[in-house]
Specification:
The protein is an alpha+beta fold and 419 residues long. α4 packs across α7 (267-302), α5 runs antiparallel to α6 and α5 runs antiparallel to α7. Strands 1, 2, 3, 4, 5, 6 and 7 form a seven-stranded mixed β-sheet that branches. A two-stranded antiparallel ribbon has the order 8-9. The termini are far apart. It contains eleven helices and nine strands. The chain is elongated and about 80 Å long. The chain has three domains: 35-142, Acyl-CoA dehydrogenase/oxidase, N-terminal domain (Butyryl-Coa Dehydrogenase, subunit A, domain 1, Orthogonal Bundle); 148-265, Butyryl-CoA Dehydrogenase, subunit A, domain 2, CATH 2.40.110.10; 268-413, Butyryl-CoA Dehydrogenase, subunit A, domain 3 (Up-down Bundle). It has helices at residues 35-52, 56-62, 67-75, 93-106, 108-128, 131-142, 267-302, 314-342, 348-372, 384-396, 401-413, and strands at 148-151, 167-173, 176-189, 196-204, 217-223, 229-233, 245-256, 304-305, 308-309.
């Protein structure tokens, strides 16, 4: 004789809504921004709410690039990362910073897509390219029709990228003057699934010993379908899973002379591109921290334990306050330094301080939020786990914590300790 199934009470977990934006700005750091700045920020926020959050967990879990979102980013004019493109409205540094915060609040991979396509590849061409190169690539890249990569880091040269070993040699092939590139690059976003790669290589003497190399780092626009170019997607990542980074091999890759960026003839040109993006990385860290804080706050009001919502507990309120304090400090720092940048007064050391401070702060906030959500904190659907993992990549790229600390320390003491 079969028994009736026992009545089970409380075994079905409620659905938590942790995705709503809360407009975190406790110190009113951005309360007085211009209307066009606010509109750019809100356009990015709407994009996150309508396009990113409903689908990103699946892309992240499957480690797939959301190419459909890339096209939509371009349609909303969010793909160029604030880089000036003729015929498009100028975007202020404050507007682009707030947009970066909002997009990172949605997802780190999507924010990195913007950073790679606009902040690095497109910016390199706009800053250092010829008028012909800018005309050929800028608008198609802003439209997402041409996807670009930025190849600086090498397998054995990360923080010491100034020592890169990839070479370029002048040559003539089939009657065409140009360069042959040899070497390897690693961790190159879009390097295996894009259209062009801005490759940084050291110009050395030609094979015939002509003495025509200057030993300086130069930039070259390399089609990814060029013979000898191999981009292999790096697998097994636990961070930024919805953008592909590549290990690139350059084996006797020929490019015509017109592929060289005429303004990129030393590592100073590379540094100029990186300097322009470092503050954006700090803004992205703020976005990740805001996402984790929002999720923790929403969860604390919806999750009931021992007959009360978590938010009614003193310990939880203290943790929420600690997270908000950190987020607010980060916002005030990036806001002020962005004002200095707009006035042309931002120093490299100040940009390093922003990156150093904000990625450390984001890590702290994400750790508290993950703990507050308990077991639910490791579920992708509750947001925090994805940000928790992605912050680890953000903490490393565009200068590790240690390298930025040494840059700041050198400024404080007048003593370089890199060697």
């Amino acid at each position: 004789m079969s028994r009736p199934a026992p009545t089970q009470i409380g075994v079905t977990a409620p659905d938590y809504d942790l995705s709503a934006p809360s407009d975190v700005d406790y110190a009113r750091a951005f309360a007085d921004v211009a209307p066009e700045v606010r509109e750019h920020q809100l356009r990015a926020r709407r994009f996150v709410q309508d396009e990113v959050l409903p689908v990103i967990d699946g892309y992240w879990e499957r480690a797939e690039v959301p190419f459909d979102l890339v096209k939509k980013l371009a349609e909303h004019d969010l793909l160029r990362d604030g880089v000036d493109v003729a015929g498009r409205p100028t975007v202020s540094l404050m507007a682009e910073g707030l947009a970066s915060m909002e997009i990172s609040r949605g997802d780190g991979s999507v924010a990195t897509i913007c950073g790679v396509q606009g902040g690095l590849a497109l910016r390199s061409i706009v800053m250092h390219g010829s008028p012909e190169q800018v005309e050929q690539y800028a608008e198609p890249m802003a439209r997402g029709e041409i996807l670009g990569a930025f190849a600086l880091t090498e397998p054995t040269h990360g923080s010491d990228s100034v020592s890169l070993e990839t070479t370029a040699r002048r040559t003539v092939r089939d009657g065409v003057e140009g360069y042959v590139l040899d070497g390897e690059k690693k961790w190159i976003g879009f390097g295996s699934c894009g259209d062009i790669t801005v490759v940084w290589a050291r110009l050395v003497d030609s094979a015939d010993g002509a003495g025509d190399g200057d030993g300086q780092v130069h930039g070259f626009i390399v089609p990814q379908d060029a013979p000898g170019y191999t981009g292999t997607t790096i697998e097994g990542k636990m961070s930024l899973r919805a953008i592909w980074q590549a290990h690139i091999e350059l084996d006797d890759v020929f490019v015509p002379a017109g592929a060289a960026l005429p303004g990129a003839t030393s590592f100073k040109a590379t540094s100029a591109v990186l300097f322009a993006t470092r503050l954006t990385v700090a803004w992205s860290a703020v976005g990740h921290a805001v996402a984790c804080y929002e999720a923790a706050l929403a969860y604390s009001t919806q999750r009931v334990q021992f007959g009360k919502p978590l938010a009614a507990r003193q310990m939880v309120q203290e943790r929420l306050t600690r997270m908000l304090s950190t987020v607010t400090q980060m916002q005030l720092l990036v806001g002020r330094l962005t004002e200095l940048a707009e006035a042309g007064e931002l120093t490299g050391e100040q940009a390093s301080l922003a990156k150093y401070t904000c990625t450390r702060g984001a890590r702290e906030v994400a750790s508290i939020a993950r703990d507050m959500l308990g077991g639910n904190g490791i579920l992708l659907g509750n947001r925090v786990a994805r940000h928790f993992a992605d912050i680890e990549a953000l903490h490393t790229y565009e200068g590790t914590e240690s390298m930025n600390a040494l840059i700041i320390g050198r400024d404080l003491t007048g003593i370089s300790s890199f060697a």
